[in-house]
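Reply to dn_fold:

You asked what the input looked like. This is it:
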Amino acid sequence: MWDSFPNVKQDESGPDPVDTRLGVRLAALRAERGWSLGELAERSGVSKSTLSRAERAEISPTASLLNRLCGVYGRTMSQLLSEVEAEPALLIRGADQTVWEDRASGFVRRSVSPPHSGLRGELVEGRLASGSDIAYDRPPVPGLEQHIWVLEGALDVTAQDAEHHLGTGDCLRLRVWGPTRFRCAGPDPVRYVLAVVLP
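and this is what came back:
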């Protein structure tokens, strides 16, 4: 099912290089602010042990965990992931786009836009396996604008206590202020484009 995502980690023998670079960056962001693991745990609502293991790349962080940390550090997920890449380019080939997988939730995320920490707008391709359900308790940046365009399958999105059922070709535009939920209830996986614009 994920044949078009050649960079997805398949080998369980060691830490994924992206997870390792991500852990180093997360540790650096915490150090830049002079926070202890305890202080970051209080700000993010994530346990010290989980934060420590993520920084040491002993675990592959989930989408929900990264979302919480992005909220604390004032970044979108794409901005954070772009910071663990090499020099930003204007063009990025499909084979070179960063792919990240949250195995626990069945979510695969491809950063389509060329990475750059100063981006205000970005494109992301998401895939959810059938039965996948991801809940975010807050946006990484309050007031974040999102456009969700379903390319294949069906996606249920809940935001601001409103539920939206999106079929193939449908597009939902929203500003994110609170919790959101993405769910693939259909028998088939869903593939969608997420356009994100910073406020």
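The two ends are 35 Å apart (CA to CA).
Hope that clears it up.
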